[in-house]
Amino acid sequence: MGCGNCGTGANGKPNGCKGNGGCSTGGCNRMNVFDWLSALPLHDSAKPYPVIEVTFNKGSRKDFFRNNTHNILEKGEWVAVEGIGGFDLGQVSLTGELVKLQMKKYSADDPSTLKRVTRKATDEDLQVYYKQKEREPEMLTRSRAIARNFKLEMKLCEVEVQADGKKATFFYTADSRVDFRELIKAYASEFKVKVEMRQIGARQESGKVGGIGSCGRELCCSTWLTDFKSVNTTAARYQNLSINQTKLSGQCGRLKCCLNYELDTYMDALRVFPDNAETIQTTRGNANLQKKDIFKNLMWYSYSDSSKQYPLSIERVKEILAQNKQGIKPDELQPVELEVSSNKAGLKVDMGFVNDVGQISLRALEKGNKKKKHKGNKQGGGGGNNQQRPQRAQGGGQQQKGQSGQQRQGGQQQKGQGGQQRQGNQQQKGQGGQQKQGSSQQQRGQGGQPKGQGNNNPNRNRNPKPKQPVDKQQ
Questions:
Q1: Distance CA 392, CA 372 (A)
Q2: Cβ(246)–Cβ(253) below 8 Å
Q3: Which residue from 20, 164, 168, 438 lies 20 to 30 Å from 133 (Cα-Cα)?
Q4: Cβ(311)–Cβ(327) under 8 Å?
């Protein structure tokens, strides 16, 4: 996070890093450098090194300048330097003896030929500088539209305007040579500035734009990496990485620079492995090398007629190769037994193949789903102590089947288009029957007997007949 986003407290210092413009994380300056020689004292006759390093556009570009002024400049100060036809403003990023080492590293020019620092920046210079910087996003959008009209195969990634507004530098990327003579004329007439076109690579473009890498941190090219070495797929093969263009490519579309970081360590570790060990001969057949485990010093072999892999130690592989040179084929590979101890029972399990990536078991989720289904089957309509049936209706009775339904006589409901008919001790009402709604009468269990009818056996009322009224007076 930059200091401009941290906010300012009552004491005038940022609330976040409290660095007053010199963030330790490099958020304020993408190419921030720690001067580890700044506290080194100089003897009395020595003078500070007359060259300083100045950064422009928040670390997007750096350059060396001669400090002919008698001012002692500190890191983070704004200074005015010589520009093209005017002046430019930048921040001091490095001073002292470390600048000498940086110039030697980048093979910089002789200090006498460098441009010089004119003065410290004033408030008026900073106002003009910020005003010109506000033009850059609009100029970038407009310049891309003009380049599209000329149908040029190029991509504009950044526009940097000089502090006095007399010059603008357009940074672009292109796969081939671009003829932009007419484009420069269009830019000069449109923006009324002196135009400079500068071609950069894809990695430099990512460093200027910035972003977050797959590791979760800011891109190395936009924070500390200044020189870009060539990266090829050989570095991935030495590290036993799968050649996957999507995973091995960075934000710039090229191979990741971090593939070179651990390459030297892997090269040193691979020196103990034997050469020309891709195939070894046994009485069963030829065993082919599948991979090298650098961390465990193992070499995995497999036969062509089987997918099983056998881990062999380096000493065993060297022994078999020595026997093959003498024309001897061993009977067995004698693989190494890999054992993994369990924390609970202390058992040892033979691991025929170890997956370095690892897998996640979903059995816990499957058990949870089974419990939910079991609870859902228990829930249903119809109270009482009756047994469950696999299918139940919402009211606790039996499931409706077909359009006409299934009529239950006696003490059961009749379901269908005609509705439910009540027979037995109740009179039939209407042609469609009497339809029960809501909770007018309670149903019981599987039998679906209405409340108050009694525990009549349905087998006794298969052919019910209306009962004759009994005259109590007789």
A1: 18
A2: no
A3: 20
A4: no
Cα(155)–Cα(148) distance, integer angstroms: 9
DSSP-assigned beta bridge partners for residue 291:
300
pLDDT digits (tens, 9 = 90+) for 27-73: 455 666 777 776 666 655 567 788 999 989 877 888 999 988 878 88
User: What distance in Å separates the CA atoms of residue 183 and residue 52, rounded to the nearest whole number?
Assistant: 35
- Tally of residues, the chain: 474
Q: What is the pLDDT of residue 76?
A: 86
Low pLDDT (below 50) residues in the chain: 1-5, 10, 18-22, 24-27, 343-347, 349, 381-461, 472-474
Task: Please give the class, per CATH, of domain 131-206.
Answer: alpha beta
Helix (H, G, I), strand (E, B) or coil at 106: coil
Work out whether strand 279-281 and strand 194-199 pair parallel, antiparallel, or are unpaired. Answer: unpaired
- At 53, which helix (H) or strand (E)? strand 51-56
Q: Is the dihedral of CA 42, 45, 46, 50 positive or negative?
A: positive
Contact by Cβ (8 Å): 175, 200? no
Per-residue b or e along 15-42, where b marks 16 or more CB atoms closer than 10 Å to that residue's CB: ebbebebbbeebbbbbbbbebeeeeeee
Q: Is 45 helix (H, G, I), strand (E, B) or coil?
A: coil
User: Rounded distance, CA 290 to CA 306, Å?
Assistant: 13
- CA–chain centroid gap for 39, Å, is 40
Residue with the two structure tokens 């005017």? 86
List CB contacts of 304: < 8 A, sequence separation 6 or more. 285, 286, 288
Please choose, from the candidates 391, 415, 392, the residue with its C-alpha nearest in 3D space to the C-alpha of residue 404. 415
**Boundaries of CATH 3.30.300 in the chain?**
131-206
Residue 108 is classified by DSSP as P
What are the backbone dihedrals phi and psi of residue 414, each rounded to the nearest 5 degrees, phi first? -105, 115
